[in-house]
Amino acid sequence: MEASMTDPPSVDAKENKILKGTFAVAGIMSTLVIYGVLQEKIMRVPYGPNHEFFKHSLFLVFCNRITTSAVSAIFLLTSKKALDPVAPIYKYGVVSISNILTTTCQYEALKYVSFPVQTLAKCAKMIPVMIWGTLIMQKKYKGPDYFLALLVTLGCSLFILFPGASELSPYRRERESTVWGVSLMIGYLGFDGFTSTFQDKLFKGYDMDIYNQVFYTTLCSCILSLSGLILQGNLLMAIDFVSRHKDCFFDIALLSTVATASQFFISYTIRTFGALTFATIMTTRQLVSILLSCLWFAHPLSVEQFVGAVIVFGSLYARGFLKWKPEKPLPSSHKLDEEAAVPLKAIP
């Protein structure tokens, strides 16, 4: 008897999908959780017997970008794709400058706020994305989008404004919710929102391969961050620090490696399972990162912070499940959505 065209998927197909899903989840969770722990360790934990802090955040940006740029170039060459820029170089430069400012604010903020505070605050990025989307792309948003943004902002505000009683910055002795730390996070959210929106505009305005944009944007970032280090006189100081503290050198090398590797897992997940699955994994990753940081670095959580975290993650999960519908995996040439529009912004 001939098999019916409506027969359920074979056992092998289901097992293959489970294996792919396990690979995607393990890849994203492991690389980005390690990245989060490492960036907090580098910026907040002293090195050596003299308890010296690493202060050169622009050097971390340079190391991350040069690693991603090299991997992107290798991919383009091995896949025989064109290396020529698709858009004018200055447009890559605009994305690069905004991305450097985003990442620098992110690293600098860790001097004044803990990783859990920073990670939860990132959930509020939908507000600047909506603002920039309206200004640059003339997008229109619905009432539920604004309501969700307000809920997430409320939760983030509770988490930032009511830190644990013993949570102190290693750089300042006041409570963690300093004006400078909050200002850096606002700068991060504003520049990050502009970066993703302008990248979206580049994808829509040009027939641009994702790795082409990654290569030229990270190449511009390498040049700009290296120039900044030289002009500030911090390049030799950063090199001297990592040469004296080998553990810091290995931390930075591993940070750049997992930052680059995570981008391939992100692309693989979206292309294989779709944006909803990716968004759910990323929300879970943020929750796991916060819990791990609280345990590893002994960050106390106040009652208000716990309530804020419940509001934020409850809202994000509710949005995902309420908007759920069967979705087909995205084709390899499809533009990645907001969190992974381009590998640059998933971490930084």
Automatic annotation (TrEMBL):
Highest taxon of the lineage: Eukaryota
Transmembrane feature ranges: 18-38, 58-78, 146-165, 177-194, 214-236, 248-270, 290-318
Gene Ontology cellular component annotations, sorted alphabetically: endoplasmic reticulum membrane; Golgi membrane
Coiled-coil annotated spans: none
Main location, first listed in the record: membrane
Gene Ontology molecular function terms on file: 3'-phosphoadenosine 5'-phosphosulfate transmembrane transporter activity; antiporter activity
Localisation per UniProt entry: Membrane
Bilayer topology term: Multi-pass membrane protein
Keywords attached to this entry: Antiport, Membrane, Transmembrane, Transmembrane helix, Transport
Transmembrane helix keyword on record: yes
InterPro entries according to UniProt: SCL35B1-4/HUT1
PANTHER family noted in UniProt: ADENOSINE 3'-PHOSPHO 5'-PHOSPHOSULFATE TRANSPORTER 1 (PTHR10778:SF13), SOLUTE CARRIER FAMILY 35 MEMBER B (PTHR10778)
UniProt family annotation: Belongs to the nucleotide-sugar transporter family. UDP-galactose:UMP antiporter (TC 2.A.7.11) subfamily.
Annotated protein name in UniProt: UDP-galactose/UDP-glucose transporter 5B
Organism encoding this protein: Deinandra increscens subsp. villosa
